Amino acid sequence: MNDLQGSVAAAASPGAEALAPAPGHRQLFFGMMQVALSAFGGGLSAWSQRIIVEERRWMDNTSFLTGLTVARLFPGPNQINMAVYIGARFQGLSGALAALAGMLLVPFSLLMLVGLAYFSLRSLPLVDRLLAGVVTAAAGLALSMGFKILHQYQRDPVALLLALATFVAMAVFHIRLIPVVLVAGPLAMAWYWPRGAAGPGVDR
Predict the structure, then answer these.
(1) Greatest CA separation found in the chain?
(2) Residues 6 or more apart from 151 whose CB is under 8 A from it?
(3) Residues 49 and 145: beta-carbon distance below 8 Å
(4) DSSP sequence for 42-93
(5) 13, 89, 100, 140: which could form a disulfide with 60 (CB 3.0–4.6 Å)?
(6) 137, 71, 72: which is closest to 99 by C-alpha?
(7) Per-residue pLDDT, 15
(8) Rg of the chain over CA atoms, in angstroms?
(9) What letters, b where the CB count within 10 A reaches 16 and e where it falls short, cover 184-203?
(10) What does the pLDDT profile of the chain (204 residues) look like in tens digits?
């Protein structure tokens, strides 16, 4: 399993050795604020990956995806949970609070102003067309993130099968998230559970 984790991490982030130093409270605040302010119309996960992994290099893709998975397993908005995860990872409780403030403080204030403007101007056709374009761009960002992380799993048929089964269950059969997680989660953990050098998913 250690060999598998090492190979996945290397494939996901060939420059993992060049990761930036652990961010302080100020960096966490402004980094999360950058994520929130970049994601007008949605696409928070894609922007978060781009800023945290590609630009600021606080994490590699493997660590980021682990955090995102944990964030999605807990109640509440994914990126709020993700901000708490990132802040706590680097600076503990105070870091989680700094990251959470960055994610919420300025964006929430702007949201109130934008909301007031929207309710004043929503009757204009131009406003609806503008918002439709923003949502389309956000969907494209989310899709681009999927393609960016696909390469680290393309040589792992079990991971691809689990991903495909999850997609079909939710998109085609409209099964709710919790039952899917309760089934797919234990299956994935059982397959990748360490069994020594010759465990499943490890080259013999």
Answers:
(1) 65
(2) 11
(3) yes
(4) S-HHHHHHIIIIIIS-SS-HHHHHHHHHHHHHSSS-HHHHHHHHHHHHHHHH
(5) 13
(6) 71
(7) 43
(8) 19
(9) eeeebeeebeeeeeebebbe
(10) 334 344 344 444 444 458 999 999 999 999 999 998 886 656 678 889 889 999 999 999 889 988 988 888 888 888 899 999 999 999 999 999 999 999 999 878 887 887 777 777 766 677 667 767 666 766 676 677 677 667 767 788 888 898 889 989 998 999 988 888 889 888 888 888 876 544 444 443
Please give the structure tokens belonging to residue 144: 């681009």
Looking up tokens 């465990």 gives 199
Nearest to 48 by CA among 9, 2, 87: 87
Residue 27's SS3 state is: helix
Cα separation of 17 and 177, whole Å?
35
Which one, of 112, 115, 46, lies nearest residue 82 by Cα?
46
| Integer CA distances (angstroms), 195 to 56, 176, 201, in order | 35, 32, 10
